[in-house]
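Hi P.,

Sorry for the delay on this. The queue was packed all week, but I finally got your sequence through. Input first:
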Amino acid sequence: MPVDVQRTASDVRDGVRIWLAEQLHPVTNLEVSELSSTDGGLSSEMYFFSASWRDAAGNDRDQEFVIRIRPDNHQVIPDPDAIFQYELMKRIGEQSSVPVPRVWFAEPDATTIGSPFFVMERVPGTLFQPGSGTAWTPEQLATLYDNGLAMLADLHRIDPNDGFEFVGWPGETALDGVLAQATRWYTWTKAGRDLGILDVAFEWVKANRPHTTDSSICWGDARPGNILVNDDLSLAAVLDWEMAVLAPPEADLGWWLLFERAAYEGFGLPKPAGVPTRDETIAIYERHLGRSARDVRYYEILAGLRLGIISVRLLDLNGYGDLGAPWTLEETDDKKIVNCPFTRVLAEWLGCDVYGRPLA
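Then the structure:
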């Protein structure tokens, strides 16, 4: 359950300054800037800050940091775990070429600032959001998508048994685990209410699960908008690992595909030239992974269920603000019917309307 944590940026700064001095000990002249909040991040509490200090060798150091704090008052998924993210990013950074920000320290004890947190380097770069104002040419966008999908395949080739077992959820297979995660999210968010098409989708993914023992480290929020890129179009950083899970690699591919469709069709936006089609995206990913993708539509529907659940939760929290106001079609104590980009696509695929009623 959410914890009633009331804190200000000033409170966080004061606590972090004392704590950071202990982590960097022995240091002198430590200065920590005021904290600034981030524009994005619907599922976490984050701040930017800079620090300067003189280390034990007498060298003056400067570093830009990001602090990510467990979101006790604004939980989009149940059981958020900042220390899980720290451990996963640390291992991925040490054991692969996937460009995650360097993590410096983590604090599992809530007494420092009221919640567990970790500190990582702030990575410069441009957020990979086609159509957001960055003037990429079609050729540049094609390169960026190729680089992004190559990274995704690299992630999926990491041996999940090489110290990543903690990422998995209980189950005989990785697919059992990701379905256990989805069930936890669904039950928590549903809270006994009729969720329309999401109830239909939940039963569908259980009844139509493919037979597979494939297992990989899945990012959990695989999409271009969670990638920072450099000026030379290489990837600077892969962000937001709170929903990572062991799963068949197609779970990330399905999420990527659904998010891309919803980002354009769902908001009535034109797809910029250079953004690959669904079939082209699958082909690029397969080329980098070195095998054919299997049961892709199943994993797109699973992604639709998971993203739909998150949308319901964000609407409960008013996390979308004015943007999400029209998406709630009906809401009572025992019903919440949502007509968002994800539930609309789910309804189309499952032959229903967003209430979950079969179409004639």
